Task: structure prediction
Amino acid sequence: MKVYFIGAGPGAPDLITIRGAKILSEVPIVLYAGSLVPEVVLTHCNPDATKINTASLNLDQQVEQYRTAKHNNQSIARVHSGDPSIYGAMAEQMKRLDELEIDYEVVPGVSSFTAAAAVLKTELTKPNVTQTVILTRLSGRASAVPEKENLSSLAAHQASLCIFLSGRQLQETITELSRHYKTDTPIAFVYRATWPDERIVRGTLENIMSLVNPADWTLTTIILVGDVMREELPSESCLYSPEYAHKFRKASTKSATTAGGVL
Result:
């Protein structure tokens, strides 16, 4: 008997991993966060599997499902939205499983921040713009953000920022970001990336709030901000330059760069 923590991906049923879909097709019990995981993802499940929506269950009630499954020697798939290692509340479940001496495995998934970048058709790192991506959120009722990680201090790096779970605090988010980013810095709100009802709005820190009704973005919204989203590309990477040599490719000119990068 084993518990599989499976990243369901951002929403589209074909963005779950092959491994995750295979496990869903085999296990007899599936627990899923119905408020976050679309039911279409469950089409990968065994038709005879018992499917339990955990949206109304507290942690103790979920653990009871694991305990019963162990007694019956039945494996369980615990399906999380996106990737379970990011805001997945997985650690507390694993602690309980350790106490119950139940084996478990984590199957990674496509995160909503990479899905949001994909639907925006943007790269989160660009040469001479930023090589850093920061994932964060604002404090909420379920979990507070440590003061040393407050949004203003992270914004001071002016890296690519991906802000989860903060749709209820849009104006506060814009105010904090504006302390460090220029007012014309690009920003995007992405609601339910890859779902059928996906919505996107682009703007700048200066005008984004005039383009939205905040009430429409309170749930399942991720915010991406940074100069990296400008269309201009100040310079290209050396990686594919004809003059750049590495382990797998020779330079095409005598001025080959042989710096230590290895693909």
